[in-house]
Write a structure and sequence with these properties.
The protein is 29% helix and 7% strand. By secondary structure, the chain is of the alpha+beta class. It has 2 domains: 28-121, no CATH class; 153-334, no CATH class. Helix 5 (239-245) packs antiparallel against helix 9. Bound molecules: zinc ion (ZN) (4 copies). Residues 18, 20-21, 23, 32, 34-35, 37 line the site of one zinc ion.
Length: 335
């Protein structure tokens, strides 16, 4: 093969791996996103010949502040003027405070004036509920702050309850992954195992007092219903499913699910053919609500049916629960 002419081949950066667990890392992460180990980025290549006295990370002699820990490291070698990019560092943009110096991603502080820097984390799928920096959905630990990147630690009580209810309803874990996400709650067909929970419900000041663990549990169960259906999509093609729930492929605009609805543990009395009012909005919501009630009531259909009888529910509601119950039983039989 002919050698490429006129253009130097790009030298691939050596793969960075966590010394503890072997997971891939990005340069200047503070923590391994897999095992959480604290990382140190020393000047092992002797690129600058200088490390911060305090945190040990690579710095330049010209810096006045450590861009990683933010401490004052001024000495006689420090540049009296802010520079763009001393040796060993790249210029990516100017300091956001207007000191005139250059900063490189992902410096937390300006090395010239010491003030905090913000970055856009466009390459990441989500933002950390603890520090609001970029994280990916598969990360367990935030590489920036070292906390739980999914935010599951903030809804532990609800998740524990959900897990217990799934066990007693005899549903096997299908490797779903709950995480907090800004702006939405839901499950998408593209990543059916990822259950997104609106993070404002948990971290937003306005919401925190209004949202109960019951509501969160209900919301998670409802979204798990969507995930479960995506995970078992062939179930939607069976005649019995279609007769009970209808055509789930029917287009619909995803309404902003009304969180108040999910707090209700009782069955509505108004719509005879649906377990709740929200269930009547679309066949997929109908299934998710049926799933939520099935699991919240531990799969005890006899008790549920007694309540349906008292509330004059129509035969279609009974059938939906029977269809779901039989399907869950058939899954147990297959495995
Ligand atoms: Zn690791
Ligand atoms: Zn430092
Ligand atoms: Zn600055
Ligand atoms: Zn974080």
């Amino acid at each position: 093969m002919a050698k490429p002419v006129g253009r130097r081949r790009e030298v691939p950066t050596p793969e960075l791996r966590c010394p503890t667990c072997g997971a891939e890392l990005e340069r200047f992460w503070s923590h391994c996103s897999n095992c959480g180990r604290r990382l140190e980025w020393r000047d092992t290549q002797k690129a600058t010949g200088a490390e911060c006295y305090y945190c040990g990370w690579i710095v330049s002699d010209a810096f006045s502040f450590c861009p990683w820990c933010g401490r004052d490291i001024t000495d006689e070698a420090s540049s009296p003027e802010p520079l763009k990019a001393p040796k060993g560092f790249k210029y990516e943009r100017r300091c956001r405070w207007g000191c005139g110096g250059g900063v490189m991603y992902p410096m937390a502080y300006c090395p010239w004036c010491g003030r905090p820097q913000k970055w856009r984390y466009d390459g990441y799928q989500n933002i950390c509920p603890h520090c609001s920096k970029g994280v990916d959905d598969w990360m367990d630990v935030c590489p920036w702050c070292g906390e739980d990147a999914t935010g599951r630690d903030l809804i532990r009580q609800a998740l524990r309850r959900v897990r217990q209810l799934l066990v007693v309803s005899r549903l096997k874990d299908w490797n779903y992954r709950v995480l907090l996400r800004p702006g939405v709650s839901g499950v998408t067909h593209r990543s059916p195992k990822v259950i997104e929970i609106e993070r404002r419900y948990v971290t937003g000041k306005r919401w925190r007092d209004e949202i109960s663990w019951n509501m969160l549990t209900g919301l998670i169960l409802h979204e798990l219903g969507h995930s479960f259906l995506y995970h078992n999509w062939s179930f939607t093609r069976t005649g019995r499913f279609r007769r009970a729930f209808g055509e789930v492929r029917k287009v619909y605009r995803v309404a902003d699910s009304k969180w108040v609805d999910f707090e209700r543990r009782g069955v509505t009395t108004t719509l005879p053919n649906y377990v709740t009012a929200y269930a009547a909005t679309h066949p997929q919501e109908d299934f998710a609500e049926t799933f939520r009630f099935y699991v919240a009531r531990r799969g005890r259909l006899r008790e549920l049916f007694a309540e349906f009888g008292r509330k004059r529910k129509g035969v279609p509601v009974f059938e939906k629960f029977l269809v779901l119950g039989d399907f869950i039983r058939s899954l147990r039989g297959w495995r």
